[in-house]
User: Which sequence fits this backbone?
């Protein structure tokens, strides 16, 4: 007998979401994927600036769709007394409140921690800022790239003799959002026993340190700043390893090959694949130290093999031989690879304005299935619905709020 | 009256941790930070290869300390029947089981999902692999860099006319571990109501797509692969922005400056700071499109100002003026900056072999405090303790297991 499917992990959890752009929305979106009812509170005049911040203004941007799937949208004018009062009443009914406004803004609006905690001691009140409380930069603005610069990520990314590069991944935003999501869900778990909410805060700069801890081990060992090493690995002691050029020689025609010092067989397997099995056991190549001294020679030996095939074939052959290997895949290749859609890693959102929109879903499978993807909401799409259900508002009361410009 | 401090969010949760290196350990370490009792099950002969994989072999590596804080260690020989039986009995008492062995290894050991689920239907059974179940690469090995290559991250990192670079952040490892941690804690939350565990799986390649969704929006708009843009922003439409050189001209002497199109004031404020207020309102510079056409001119105008001060002063002055700005800080500067230690973002672990070891703590503060940092365990440090408490084993039974080489 197949057991009945389980409900969403966070079914029944109510999240009042005052976030915009990405660091906050990526966090609340995960809660929505996991089943929480996430109600995005937006300014009636345009809403989350992420809706329109890049390119086309005739419909919600791909950026907005990516970070607001599965949520609901309610408009409220926080500058109007009735709008603000409505949001406070919603906060009294919520389990989680999340905001990532500029420093001090939420307090100026009258929705600071003390106010909402007073209304609802069970509330988990979560804030994402650029810099930490008590930091010399506490009052400064930040975006993803500012966090990646000031949190160390850029200093260890790029080529050795060139200026720092910014990772294409938006680690400052989504990377921070994920850490806050962990603390929020853990706090919900504790609240089942204690009945108490709490205040959670994370700074984007601080969050970056969590992701570069391997680089800190280099500094722990050497006493100096970890370097930039191009496509190599900062901790450096696995040789050979890196990206190797493949046919036909395009910008992303490379395969990453890695031989771990934890498993000396990787190197021997690689020698067999590239037709150099005669070197297995040869003292000139047998230890990491010996190979490190001959790194350019080894890299060329491997490249002589990789140049003869395309990256997909190289990855397949190396992988089948038990050697860690990965083709450098670009976003067009990933977007169009049927395997990701078949496995639910890429999913298609049916959006009322945009139509079919394909994007990455939540990558963790639960009992063998990926979590469902629902459209990002239109601005104010759920205002009436949420006010009815959360606050029991009558049609007349809702109409009055609308007439007042409060929602 | 100050309310009593709350217990750890995950106090009382038992995690049986069969992970090694980073993707798995970073996940279980977060659970430990949040209060779970995480018992690392290690091979008696050397344990987690991360203990010794880099550099010094006279004590546990900085790498191991970074990713195993707050955990316990129990040794078990999984090749011995009594050792394997002991781990199964522990699994029967656990809430969460996590492993990141090579594909198929956990099943070959006799600790696959079906076996442990049969023993303990409440168990949350979590697996981190390189490639997804059903992927053509399902049986292949992967490490951090393989995931960053094949998951798109490298294709969008580095200089436009050079090969791809690998972000210094270990997104393939820790980035994946964080997503699994979210699903685990959410599953624990649901289990409070359903009493049922589940199987969770994530692939490092798949997890990378979650972190590069902004790049996918570029592909959604253009139909082609997102490019590499050095230190600039891939989605590209905020001008000016990027890193600007500061005195005295060292490798990391840059400040990132960003002017968001969502707030036209950023540009005006920047003109004031750099002494070019005469250009405020000038049509040649007033729109994004106009500035984009003059980007090199603007970058030089800004650099003429930044070159005259060091990055810390530039960050301070720009930040105080309401312009998003961040100095490029390196790992030595971050490691030695007293502000991070004062705020608990960097904490000092007191390790019995290594002594004082400073590392980043969990960056989310709970009710104003950072979570405490306890030392990473010595190999087998808690074998007896855990077998007594979890299984009620007598001293005699423990001695027999030890004599047998099972633990």
Assistant:
């Amino acid at each position: 007998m197949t057991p009945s499917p389980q409900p969403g992990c966070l079914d029944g959890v109510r999240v009042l979401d005052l976030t915009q752009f990405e660091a906050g929305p990526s966090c609340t979106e995960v809660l929505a994927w996991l089943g929480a009812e996430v109600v995005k509170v937006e300014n009636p005049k345009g809403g989350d600036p992420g809706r329109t911040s890049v390119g086309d203004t005739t419909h919600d941007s791909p950026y907005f769709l990516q970070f607001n799937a599965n949520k609901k949208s309610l408009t409220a004018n926080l500058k109007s007394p009735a709008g603000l009062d409505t949001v406070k009443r919603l906060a009294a009914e919520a389990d989680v409140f999340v905001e990532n406004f500029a420093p001090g803004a939420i307090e100026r609006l009258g929705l600071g921690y003390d106010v909402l905690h007073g209304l609802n001691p069970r509330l988990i009140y979560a804030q994402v800022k650029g810099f930490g409380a008590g930091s010399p930069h506490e009052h400064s603005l930040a975006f993803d790239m500012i966090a990646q610069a000031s949190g160390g990520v850029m200093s260890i990314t790029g080529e050795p003799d060139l200026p720092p590069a910014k990772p294409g991944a938006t680690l400052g935003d989504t990377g921070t959002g994920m850490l806050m999501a962990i603390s929020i869900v853990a706090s919900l778990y504790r609240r089942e026993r204690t009945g108490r909410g709490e205040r959670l805060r994370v700074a984007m700069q601080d969050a970056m340190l969590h992701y570069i801890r391997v680089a800190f081990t280099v500094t722990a060992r050497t006493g100096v700043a970890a370097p930039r090493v191009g496509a190599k690995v900062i901790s450096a002691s696995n040789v050979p390893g890196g990206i190797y050029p493949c046919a036909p020689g395009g910008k992303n025609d490379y395969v990453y090959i890695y031989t771990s010092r934890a498993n000396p067989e990787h190197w021997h397997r690689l020698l067999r694949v590239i037709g150099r099995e005669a070197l297995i056991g040869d003292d000139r190549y047998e230890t990491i130290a010996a190979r490190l001294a001959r790194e350019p020679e080894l890299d060329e030996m491997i490249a002589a093999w990789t140049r003869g095939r395309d990256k997909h074939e190289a990855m397949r052959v190396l992988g089948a031989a038990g050697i860690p290997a990965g083709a450098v895949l670009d976003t067009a290749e990933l977007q169009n690879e049927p395997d990701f859609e078949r496995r639910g890693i890429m999913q298609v959102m049916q959006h009322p304005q945009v139509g079919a929109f394909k994007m990455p879903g939540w990558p963790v499978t639960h009992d063998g299935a990926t979590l469902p993807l629902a459209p990002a909401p239109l601005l104010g799409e759920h205002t009436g619905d949420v006010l009815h259900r959360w606050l029991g508002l009558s049609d007349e009361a809702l109409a009055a709020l609308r007439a007042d410009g409060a929602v």
